[in-house]
Amino acid sequence: MKKIIANREIDVNEEGYLLEFSQWNREICECIAGECDVIMTEKHWEVIEFLQDKHHKEEPLSIRGIKKSGVINIKEFYALFPGGPLKKSTLIAGIPKPKSCI
Amino acid sequence: MKNLVILGAGTAGTMMANHLVNKLPKKEWEITIVDQYKTHYYQPGFLFLPFDTYTEDQVKKEGKRFIPKGVKYIQKKINQIFPETNNVELEDESLNYDILIVATGSKIAPDETDGLLGSLWKKDIFDFYTYEGALALRNKLRDWPGGKLVVHITEMPIKCPVAPLEFAFLADSYFKKKGMRNKVEITYVTPLDGAFTKPTCTKALNYLLEEKQIKIETDFAIMEVDNEKKAIVDYVDKEIPFDLLVTVPTNMGDEVIERSGLGDDLNFIPTHKHTLQSKAHDNIFVIGDATNVPASKAGSVAHFQAETLTDNIILHAQGYSLKEEFDGHANCFIETGDNKALLIDFNYDQEPVHGTFPFAKIGPLRLLKESVFNHWGKLAFRWIYWHMLLKGIPIPFVGRNMSFKGKIFDIKAKV
Q: pTM (2 decimals)?
Protein backbone atom coordinates (compact mmCIF):
# COMPACT_ATOMS: atom_id res chain seq x y z
CA MET A 1 0.00 0.00 0.00
CA LYS A 2 1.06 3.61 -0.40
CA LYS A 3 1.81 6.07 2.38
CA ILE A 4 2.81 9.71 2.17
CA ILE A 5 6.05 10.27 4.07
CA ALA A 6 7.91 13.57 3.77
CA ASN A 7 5.57 14.52 0.90
CA ARG A 8 6.51 11.43 -1.12
CA GLU A 9 4.51 8.37 -1.98
CA ILE A 10 6.25 5.41 -0.37
CA ASP A 11 5.38 1.72 -0.74
CA VAL A 12 4.88 0.17 2.67
CA ASN A 13 3.39 -3.06 4.01
CA GLU A 14 0.46 -3.03 6.41
CA GLU A 15 2.77 -2.50 9.37
CA GLY A 16 4.46 0.49 7.76
CA TYR A 17 7.72 -1.20 6.81
CA LEU A 18 9.21 -0.05 3.52
CA LEU A 19 8.81 -2.51 0.67
CA GLU A 20 11.47 -0.89 -1.51
CA PHE A 21 14.69 0.12 0.22
CA SER A 22 15.53 2.32 -2.76
CA GLN A 23 12.77 4.68 -1.63
CA TRP A 24 14.48 5.31 1.73
CA ASN A 25 16.45 8.42 2.43
CA ARG A 26 17.41 10.41 5.52
CA GLU A 27 14.40 12.70 5.32
CA ILE A 28 12.00 9.79 5.16
CA CYS A 29 13.93 8.16 7.98
CA GLU A 30 13.48 11.19 10.24
CA CYS A 31 9.75 11.26 9.51
CA ILE A 32 9.29 7.59 10.37
CA ALA A 33 11.41 8.10 13.50
CA GLY A 34 9.25 11.05 14.47
CA GLU A 35 6.12 8.93 14.20
CA CYS A 36 7.75 6.53 16.66
CA ASP A 37 8.70 9.38 19.02
CA VAL A 38 12.39 8.92 18.22
CA ILE A 39 14.62 11.94 17.58
CA MET A 40 17.57 10.90 15.45
CA THR A 41 21.02 11.52 16.94
CA GLU A 42 24.43 10.54 15.63
CA LYS A 43 24.29 7.30 17.58
CA HIS A 44 20.91 6.52 16.03
CA TRP A 45 22.38 7.00 12.54
CA GLU A 46 25.32 4.75 13.40
CA VAL A 47 23.03 1.93 14.42
CA ILE A 48 20.74 2.46 11.41
CA GLU A 49 23.70 2.18 9.05
CA PHE A 50 24.88 -0.99 10.78
CA LEU A 51 21.44 -2.57 10.44
CA GLN A 52 21.18 -1.58 6.78
CA ASP A 53 24.58 -3.12 6.12
CA LYS A 54 23.48 -6.40 7.73
CA HIS A 55 20.33 -6.33 5.64
CA HIS A 56 22.23 -5.86 2.39
CA LYS A 57 24.47 -8.75 3.28
CA GLU A 58 21.27 -10.75 4.05
CA GLU A 59 22.53 -11.48 7.55
CA PRO A 60 19.90 -12.02 10.25
CA LEU A 61 19.49 -9.57 13.13
CA SER A 62 19.38 -10.47 16.80
CA ILE A 63 19.98 -8.59 20.05
CA ARG A 64 22.91 -10.86 20.83
CA GLY A 65 24.37 -10.32 17.37
CA ILE A 66 24.13 -6.57 17.81
CA LYS A 67 25.78 -6.84 21.21
CA LYS A 68 28.59 -8.97 19.78
CA SER A 69 29.20 -6.55 16.94
CA GLY A 70 30.08 -3.84 19.41
CA VAL A 71 28.20 -1.15 17.48
CA ILE A 72 26.22 -0.33 20.64
CA ASN A 73 25.65 -1.78 24.08
CA ILE A 74 22.25 -3.31 24.56
CA LYS A 75 20.91 -1.09 27.32
CA GLU A 76 21.71 1.89 25.10
CA PHE A 77 20.02 0.15 22.13
CA TYR A 78 16.82 -0.18 24.16
CA ALA A 79 17.12 3.45 25.25
CA LEU A 80 17.54 4.74 21.68
CA PHE A 81 14.62 2.70 20.31
CA PRO A 82 12.25 2.07 23.21
CA GLY A 83 9.57 -0.60 23.07
CA GLY A 84 10.96 -3.42 20.96
CA PRO A 85 14.26 -2.04 19.63
CA LEU A 86 14.62 -4.58 16.81
CA LYS A 87 11.23 -3.90 15.29
CA LYS A 88 11.47 -0.15 15.81
CA SER A 89 15.00 0.32 14.49
CA THR A 90 14.30 -1.78 11.39
CA LEU A 91 11.16 0.24 10.68
CA ILE A 92 13.17 3.46 10.85
CA ALA A 93 16.04 1.97 8.84
CA GLY A 94 13.68 1.08 6.01
CA ILE A 95 14.45 -2.63 6.19
CA PRO A 96 12.17 -5.59 6.99
CA LYS A 97 11.71 -6.53 10.65
CA PRO A 98 13.23 -9.82 11.78
CA LYS A 99 10.90 -12.61 10.77
CA SER A 100 10.32 -16.30 11.06
CA CYS A 101 8.90 -18.67 8.43
CA ILE A 102 5.32 -18.08 9.51
CA MET B 1 41.33 -40.06 -9.39
CA LYS B 2 39.56 -36.95 -8.14
CA ASN B 3 38.07 -36.67 -4.68
CA LEU B 4 34.69 -35.37 -3.60
CA VAL B 5 34.41 -35.17 0.17
CA ILE B 6 31.15 -34.65 2.08
CA LEU B 7 31.47 -33.48 5.68
CA GLY B 8 28.48 -34.55 7.77
CA ALA B 9 26.20 -37.56 7.26
CA GLY B 10 23.02 -36.02 8.59
CA THR B 11 20.01 -35.33 6.38
CA ALA B 12 21.77 -33.16 3.79
CA GLY B 13 25.06 -35.05 3.61
CA THR B 14 23.37 -38.42 3.25
CA MET B 15 21.10 -37.12 0.49
CA MET B 16 24.06 -35.72 -1.43
CA ALA B 17 25.93 -39.04 -1.18
CA ASN B 18 22.93 -40.84 -2.63
CA HIS B 19 22.37 -38.26 -5.36
CA LEU B 20 25.96 -38.16 -6.53
CA VAL B 21 27.04 -41.79 -6.34
CA ASN B 22 25.47 -42.67 -9.69
CA LYS B 23 25.98 -39.34 -11.36
CA LEU B 24 29.72 -38.78 -11.02
CA PRO B 25 31.75 -41.18 -13.20
CA LYS B 26 33.15 -43.86 -10.90
CA LYS B 27 36.35 -44.08 -12.91
CA GLU B 28 37.10 -40.40 -12.27
CA TRP B 29 35.63 -39.60 -8.87
CA GLU B 30 35.97 -41.11 -5.42
CA ILE B 31 33.23 -39.94 -3.02
CA THR B 32 33.88 -39.98 0.71
CA ILE B 33 31.50 -39.00 3.50
CA VAL B 34 32.62 -38.29 7.07
CA ASP B 35 30.65 -38.03 10.30
CA GLN B 36 31.80 -38.29 13.91
CA TYR B 37 28.59 -40.01 15.03
CA LYS B 38 27.29 -43.50 14.37
CA THR B 39 23.63 -42.62 14.78
CA HIS B 40 21.40 -40.80 12.31
CA TYR B 41 18.43 -39.03 13.90
CA TYR B 42 15.06 -38.16 12.40
CA GLN B 43 15.06 -34.72 14.00
CA PRO B 44 11.40 -33.87 13.31
CA GLY B 45 10.67 -36.76 15.67
CA PHE B 46 12.17 -34.89 18.62
CA LEU B 47 8.97 -32.84 18.78
CA PHE B 48 6.94 -35.99 19.44
CA LEU B 49 9.25 -37.76 21.88
CA PRO B 50 8.42 -35.56 24.89
CA PHE B 51 4.72 -36.35 24.50
CA ASP B 52 5.20 -40.11 24.16
CA THR B 53 3.86 -39.98 20.61
CA TYR B 54 7.02 -41.48 19.14
CA THR B 55 9.37 -44.01 20.71
CA GLU B 56 13.15 -43.84 20.75
CA ASP B 57 13.53 -46.40 17.97
CA GLN B 58 11.35 -44.44 15.59
CA VAL B 59 13.71 -41.46 15.57
CA LYS B 60 17.12 -43.08 15.23
CA LYS B 61 18.90 -45.59 13.04
CA GLU B 62 22.47 -46.49 12.26
CA GLY B 63 23.66 -43.84 9.83
CA LYS B 64 25.86 -46.14 7.76
CA ARG B 65 22.76 -47.97 6.51
CA PHE B 66 21.82 -44.99 4.38
CA ILE B 67 25.19 -44.44 2.74
CA PRO B 68 25.15 -46.10 -0.70
CA LYS B 69 27.66 -48.66 -1.88
CA GLY B 70 30.28 -46.84 -3.83
CA VAL B 71 30.65 -44.07 -1.26
CA LYS B 72 33.41 -44.45 1.31
CA TYR B 73 32.05 -43.91 4.83
CA ILE B 74 34.37 -42.71 7.59
CA GLN B 75 33.17 -42.37 11.16
CA LYS B 76 35.71 -40.00 12.67
CA LYS B 77 35.87 -36.54 14.21
CA ILE B 78 36.63 -33.72 11.80
CA ASN B 79 39.32 -31.43 13.18
CA GLN B 80 39.74 -28.73 10.60
CA ILE B 81 39.20 -27.74 6.99
CA PHE B 82 42.15 -26.17 5.15
CA PRO B 83 40.73 -24.51 2.02
CA GLU B 84 44.12 -23.13 0.89
CA THR B 85 45.46 -26.66 0.51
CA ASN B 86 42.16 -28.40 -0.33
CA ASN B 87 42.60 -30.60 2.69
CA VAL B 88 40.49 -31.84 5.61
CA GLU B 89 42.18 -33.03 8.77
CA LEU B 90 40.33 -35.79 10.64
CA GLU B 91 41.26 -37.06 14.10
CA ASP B 92 43.97 -39.35 12.73
CA GLU B 93 44.12 -38.95 8.99
CA SER B 94 44.01 -36.34 6.31
CA LEU B 95 41.76 -36.17 3.22
CA ASN B 96 42.46 -34.24 0.07
CA TYR B 97 39.55 -32.96 -1.97
CA ASP B 98 38.86 -31.52 -5.39
CA ILE B 99 35.32 -30.64 -4.33
CA LEU B 100 34.15 -30.28 -0.72
CA ILE B 101 30.51 -30.32 0.37
CA VAL B 102 29.99 -29.01 3.88
CA ALA B 103 26.87 -30.47 5.51
CA THR B 104 27.85 -30.14 9.15
CA GLY B 105 24.49 -28.83 10.29
CA SER B 106 23.55 -26.69 13.26
CA LYS B 107 23.06 -27.40 16.94
CA ILE B 108 22.05 -25.74 20.15
CA ALA B 109 24.57 -23.76 22.17
CA PRO B 110 23.03 -23.37 25.64
CA ASP B 111 26.32 -22.02 27.00
CA GLU B 112 25.70 -18.80 25.06
CA THR B 113 23.03 -17.71 27.58
CA ASP B 114 24.16 -16.91 31.12
CA GLY B 115 22.59 -19.15 33.73
CA LEU B 116 20.99 -21.58 31.27
CA LEU B 117 23.34 -24.40 32.22
CA GLY B 118 22.91 -23.57 35.93
CA SER B 119 21.28 -25.52 38.73
CA LEU B 120 17.91 -25.86 37.00
CA TRP B 121 19.22 -27.31 33.72
CA LYS B 122 17.64 -30.73 33.17
CA LYS B 123 15.62 -30.28 36.39
CA ASP B 124 13.18 -27.55 35.40
CA ILE B 125 14.83 -26.33 32.20
CA PHE B 126 14.88 -28.55 29.11
CA ASP B 127 15.46 -28.47 25.37
CA PHE B 128 13.86 -30.75 22.78
CA TYR B 129 16.35 -30.04 20.03
CA THR B 130 18.57 -32.95 21.03
CA TYR B 131 17.71 -36.62 21.45
CA GLU B 132 18.86 -36.62 25.05
CA GLY B 133 17.03 -33.38 25.77
CA ALA B 134 13.76 -34.64 24.29
CA LEU B 135 13.95 -37.84 26.34
CA ALA B 136 14.73 -36.01 29.56
CA LEU B 137 11.77 -33.72 28.89
CA ARG B 138 9.56 -36.73 28.22
CA ASN B 139 10.45 -38.17 31.60
CA LYS B 140 9.79 -34.83 33.27
CA LEU B 141 6.40 -34.33 31.60
CA ARG B 142 5.18 -37.80 32.50
CA ASP B 143 4.97 -36.87 36.18
CA TRP B 144 4.82 -33.09 36.07
CA PRO B 145 1.97 -31.90 38.34
CA GLY B 146 1.41 -28.65 36.47
CA GLY B 147 2.23 -24.97 36.83
CA LYS B 148 3.71 -22.33 34.54
CA LEU B 149 5.06 -23.87 31.34
CA VAL B 150 7.16 -21.39 29.40
CA VAL B 151 8.12 -22.27 25.83
CA HIS B 152 10.94 -19.98 24.76
CA ILE B 153 13.13 -19.05 21.79
CA THR B 154 16.49 -17.42 22.53
CA GLU B 155 17.28 -15.81 19.17
CA MET B 156 16.92 -16.33 15.43
CA PRO B 157 17.88 -18.18 13.32
CA ILE B 158 16.90 -21.55 14.74
CA LYS B 159 16.37 -24.72 12.82
CA CYS B 160 12.72 -25.53 12.27
CA PRO B 161 11.55 -22.06 13.41
CA VAL B 162 7.98 -23.20 13.96
CA ALA B 163 8.79 -26.17 16.24
CA PRO B 164 8.52 -24.21 19.51
CA LEU B 165 5.02 -23.10 18.55
CA GLU B 166 4.14 -26.68 17.63
CA PHE B 167 5.43 -27.71 21.03
CA ALA B 168 3.06 -25.26 22.71
CA PHE B 169 0.13 -26.60 20.63
CA LEU B 170 1.00 -30.21 21.39
CA ALA B 171 1.45 -29.41 25.09
CA ASP B 172 -2.09 -28.01 25.16
CA SER B 173 -3.40 -31.29 23.69
CA TYR B 174 -1.22 -33.42 25.97
CA PHE B 175 -2.48 -31.80 29.16
CA LYS B 176 -6.09 -31.78 27.92
CA LYS B 177 -5.84 -35.51 27.31
CA LYS B 178 -4.45 -36.00 30.80
CA GLY B 179 -7.35 -34.02 32.23
CA MET B 180 -5.02 -31.43 33.74
CA ARG B 181 -5.07 -28.55 31.26
CA ASN B 182 -6.56 -26.24 33.87
CA LYS B 183 -3.51 -26.84 36.07
CA VAL B 184 -1.12 -25.59 33.36
CA GLU B 185 -0.51 -22.06 32.12
CA ILE B 186 1.29 -22.10 28.76
CA THR B 187 3.24 -19.01 27.73
CA TYR B 188 5.12 -18.69 24.43
CA VAL B 189 8.07 -16.29 24.64
CA THR B 190 9.73 -14.98 21.48
CA PRO B 191 12.36 -12.36 20.58
CA LEU B 192 10.26 -11.55 17.49
CA ASP B 193 7.30 -9.21 17.56
CA GLY B 194 4.68 -11.93 17.38
CA ALA B 195 4.04 -15.67 17.44
CA PHE B 196 3.45 -15.15 13.73
CA THR B 197 5.52 -12.67 11.79
CA LYS B 198 4.02 -12.97 8.33
CA PRO B 199 0.76 -11.06 7.92
CA THR B 200 -0.96 -13.93 6.04
CA CYS B 201 -0.12 -16.35 8.82
CA THR B 202 -1.19 -13.99 11.58
CA LYS B 203 -4.59 -13.59 9.96
CA ALA B 204 -4.98 -17.28 9.16
CA LEU B 205 -3.71 -18.74 12.41
CA ASN B 206 -4.05 -16.34 15.31
CA TYR B 207 -7.23 -18.11 16.41
CA LEU B 208 -5.09 -21.09 17.41
CA LEU B 209 -3.46 -19.12 20.22
CA GLU B 210 -6.80 -17.96 21.59
CA GLU B 211 -8.46 -21.33 21.18
CA LYS B 212 -5.63 -23.11 22.98
CA GLN B 213 -5.25 -20.36 25.61
CA ILE B 214 -1.59 -19.84 24.91
CA LYS B 215 -0.26 -16.58 26.32
CA ILE B 216 2.30 -14.70 24.25
CA GLU B 217 5.25 -12.54 25.32
CA THR B 218 6.95 -10.83 22.41
CA ASP B 219 10.12 -8.78 21.83
CA PHE B 220 11.81 -10.71 24.65
CA ALA B 221 15.58 -10.87 24.17
CA ILE B 222 16.86 -13.15 26.93
CA MET B 223 19.88 -11.87 28.84
CA GLU B 224 20.08 -14.59 31.48
CA VAL B 225 18.30 -17.27 33.48
CA ASP B 226 17.80 -16.45 37.15
CA ASN B 227 17.99 -19.91 38.71
CA GLU B 228 17.13 -18.58 42.19
CA LYS B 229 13.96 -16.79 41.13
CA LYS B 230 13.15 -19.40 38.46
CA ALA B 231 12.72 -16.75 35.83
CA ILE B 232 14.12 -15.69 32.47
CA VAL B 233 15.28 -12.10 32.37
CA ASP B 234 15.75 -9.81 29.37
CA TYR B 235 18.03 -6.82 28.74
CA VAL B 236 15.59 -4.33 30.25
CA ASP B 237 15.11 -6.47 33.35
CA LYS B 238 11.72 -7.83 32.43
CA GLU B 239 11.23 -11.16 34.23
CA ILE B 240 9.12 -14.07 33.14
CA PRO B 241 8.75 -16.68 35.89
CA PHE B 242 8.44 -20.38 35.09
CA ASP B 243 7.93 -23.73 36.78
CA LEU B 244 9.02 -25.58 33.66
CA LEU B 245 11.06 -23.88 30.95
CA VAL B 246 11.30 -25.51 27.52
CA THR B 247 13.81 -23.40 25.65
CA VAL B 248 15.41 -23.32 22.23
CA PRO B 249 18.93 -22.03 22.96
CA THR B 250 21.04 -20.13 20.42
CA ASN B 251 21.60 -22.30 17.33
CA MET B 252 25.09 -22.34 15.88
CA GLY B 253 26.97 -24.18 13.17
CA ASP B 254 29.45 -26.88 14.12
CA GLU B 255 32.64 -25.87 15.93
CA VAL B 256 34.76 -27.22 13.06
CA ILE B 257 33.52 -24.22 11.04
CA GLU B 258 34.86 -21.85 13.69
CA ARG B 259 38.16 -23.76 13.96
CA SER B 260 38.53 -23.50 10.20
CA GLY B 261 37.75 -19.78 10.08
CA LEU B 262 34.99 -20.38 7.53
CA GLY B 263 31.87 -19.06 9.25
CA ASP B 264 30.15 -15.96 10.56
CA ASP B 265 29.71 -15.27 14.30
CA LEU B 266 27.15 -18.08 14.53
CA ASN B 267 29.45 -20.46 12.62
CA PHE B 268 27.28 -20.48 9.49
CA ILE B 269 29.13 -20.38 6.18
CA PRO B 270 28.51 -17.49 3.76
CA THR B 271 26.91 -19.26 0.81
CA HIS B 272 25.48 -18.06 -2.50
CA LYS B 273 21.72 -18.23 -1.96
CA HIS B 274 20.89 -19.56 -5.46
CA THR B 275 23.87 -21.76 -6.38
CA LEU B 276 24.92 -23.02 -2.90
CA GLN B 277 28.56 -22.41 -3.70
CA SER B 278 30.62 -21.03 -0.82
CA LYS B 279 31.22 -17.30 -1.28
CA ALA B 280 34.88 -17.64 -0.31
CA HIS B 281 36.03 -20.77 -2.15
CA ASP B 282 34.93 -21.97 -5.59
CA ASN B 283 35.39 -25.66 -4.86
CA ILE B 284 33.50 -25.63 -1.56
CA PHE B 285 29.72 -26.04 -1.55
CA VAL B 286 27.44 -25.81 1.46
CA ILE B 287 24.05 -27.37 2.08
CA GLY B 288 21.47 -27.65 4.84
CA ASP B 289 21.70 -25.95 8.22
CA ALA B 290 25.39 -25.14 7.76
CA THR B 291 24.74 -22.33 5.26
CA ASN B 292 23.93 -18.71 6.04
CA VAL B 293 21.34 -18.39 3.26
CA PRO B 294 18.08 -16.71 4.32
CA ALA B 295 16.03 -19.89 3.85
CA SER B 296 14.61 -21.77 6.84
CA LYS B 297 16.87 -24.36 8.40
CA ALA B 298 14.70 -27.41 7.70
CA GLY B 299 14.96 -30.87 6.21
CA SER B 300 12.64 -30.01 3.34
CA VAL B 301 14.88 -27.10 2.40
CA ALA B 302 17.92 -29.39 2.41
CA HIS B 303 15.99 -31.78 0.16
CA PHE B 304 15.25 -29.06 -2.40
CA GLN B 305 18.79 -27.68 -2.11
CA ALA B 306 20.17 -31.17 -2.75
CA GLU B 307 18.44 -31.36 -6.13
CA THR B 308 19.95 -28.08 -7.32
CA LEU B 309 23.30 -28.72 -5.68
CA THR B 310 23.62 -32.12 -7.37
CA ASP B 311 23.23 -30.49 -10.76
CA ASN B 312 25.69 -27.77 -9.82
CA ILE B 313 28.32 -30.21 -8.58
CA ILE B 314 28.16 -32.00 -11.93
CA LEU B 315 28.37 -28.71 -13.81
CA HIS B 316 31.29 -27.58 -11.69
CA ALA B 317 33.08 -30.92 -12.12
CA GLN B 318 32.83 -30.50 -15.87
CA GLY B 319 34.01 -26.90 -15.79
CA TYR B 320 30.67 -25.25 -16.58
CA SER B 321 29.04 -22.28 -14.85
CA LEU B 322 26.59 -22.96 -12.08
CA LYS B 323 22.81 -22.67 -12.23
CA GLU B 324 21.40 -19.91 -10.04
CA GLU B 325 18.36 -22.01 -9.40
CA PHE B 326 17.62 -22.57 -5.70
CA ASP B 327 14.77 -20.29 -4.63
CA GLY B 328 14.62 -20.93 -0.87
CA HIS B 329 11.76 -23.40 -1.28
CA ALA B 330 10.49 -24.93 1.97
CA ASN B 331 7.54 -27.25 2.46
CA CYS B 332 6.72 -27.98 6.08
CA PHE B 333 4.01 -29.61 8.12
CA ILE B 334 3.03 -27.81 11.33
CA GLU B 335 1.35 -29.79 14.08
CA THR B 336 -1.50 -27.83 15.65
CA GLY B 337 -2.55 -30.45 18.20
CA ASP B 338 -5.68 -32.59 18.53
CA ASN B 339 -4.57 -34.73 15.58
CA LYS B 340 -4.50 -31.87 13.15
CA ALA B 341 -1.74 -30.17 11.19
CA LEU B 342 -1.32 -27.60 8.52
CA LEU B 343 1.08 -27.42 5.62
CA ILE B 344 3.01 -24.39 4.44
CA ASP B 345 4.80 -24.06 1.11
CA PHE B 346 6.94 -20.99 0.52
CA ASN B 347 10.30 -19.66 -0.71
CA TYR B 348 12.63 -16.65 -0.39
CA ASP B 349 10.10 -14.28 -1.91
CA GLN B 350 6.66 -15.82 -1.39
CA GLU B 351 5.20 -16.11 2.10
CA PRO B 352 2.85 -18.95 3.05
CA VAL B 353 -0.67 -18.59 1.58
CA HIS B 354 -3.86 -20.60 1.34
CA GLY B 355 -4.44 -23.20 -1.32
CA THR B 356 -3.96 -26.88 -2.07
CA PHE B 357 -0.84 -28.94 -2.54
CA PRO B 358 0.63 -30.25 -4.73
CA PHE B 359 -2.30 -30.07 -7.13
CA ALA B 360 -4.66 -27.17 -7.66
CA LYS B 361 -8.18 -27.91 -6.41
CA ILE B 362 -7.66 -31.62 -5.69
CA GLY B 363 -4.74 -31.15 -3.30
CA PRO B 364 -4.99 -33.46 -1.43
CA LEU B 365 -3.15 -31.44 1.19
CA ARG B 366 -4.43 -28.04 2.31
CA LEU B 367 -2.14 -25.08 2.69
CA LEU B 368 -2.30 -22.93 5.81
CA LYS B 369 -5.48 -24.66 7.03
CA GLU B 370 -5.76 -27.28 9.76
CA SER B 371 -6.79 -30.74 8.71
CA VAL B 372 -6.57 -34.27 10.03
CA PHE B 373 -5.27 -35.35 6.61
CA ASN B 374 -2.34 -32.98 6.99
CA HIS B 375 -1.59 -34.54 10.39
CA TRP B 376 -1.46 -38.03 8.87
CA GLY B 377 0.76 -36.53 6.20
CA LYS B 378 3.20 -35.37 8.84
CA LEU B 379 3.26 -38.79 10.50
CA ALA B 380 3.62 -40.61 7.15
CA PHE B 381 6.52 -38.36 6.44
CA ARG B 382 8.69 -40.35 8.81
CA TRP B 383 8.43 -43.31 6.43
CA ILE B 384 9.12 -41.05 3.45
CA TYR B 385 12.20 -39.67 5.18
CA TRP B 386 13.88 -43.02 5.87
CA HIS B 387 12.81 -44.70 2.61
CA MET B 388 12.81 -41.98 0.00
CA LEU B 389 14.20 -38.61 1.05
CA LEU B 390 17.50 -39.81 2.49
CA LYS B 391 18.05 -42.04 -0.52
CA GLY B 392 17.71 -39.12 -2.90
CA ILE B 393 14.51 -40.50 -4.44
CA PRO B 394 12.46 -37.56 -5.73
CA ILE B 395 9.07 -36.89 -4.19
CA PRO B 396 6.51 -37.20 -7.00
CA PHE B 397 4.91 -33.95 -8.15
CA VAL B 398 6.95 -31.83 -5.72
CA GLY B 399 9.60 -29.84 -7.53
CA ARG B 400 12.72 -28.28 -6.09
CA ASN B 401 11.41 -24.78 -6.74
CA MET B 402 8.19 -23.52 -5.23
CA SER B 403 5.21 -23.70 -7.57
CA PHE B 404 2.31 -21.28 -7.71
CA LYS B 405 -0.04 -24.12 -8.73
CA GLY B 406 -2.88 -24.43 -6.26
CA LYS B 407 -2.02 -21.28 -4.35
CA ILE B 408 -4.92 -19.02 -3.47
CA PHE B 409 -4.28 -15.40 -2.62
CA ASP B 410 -7.38 -14.63 -0.59
CA ILE B 411 -5.92 -13.24 2.62
CA LYS B 412 -6.23 -9.52 2.08
CA ALA B 413 -3.86 -6.99 3.58
CA LYS B 414 -5.47 -4.04 5.35
CA VAL B 415 -5.87 -1.11 3.01
A: 0.96
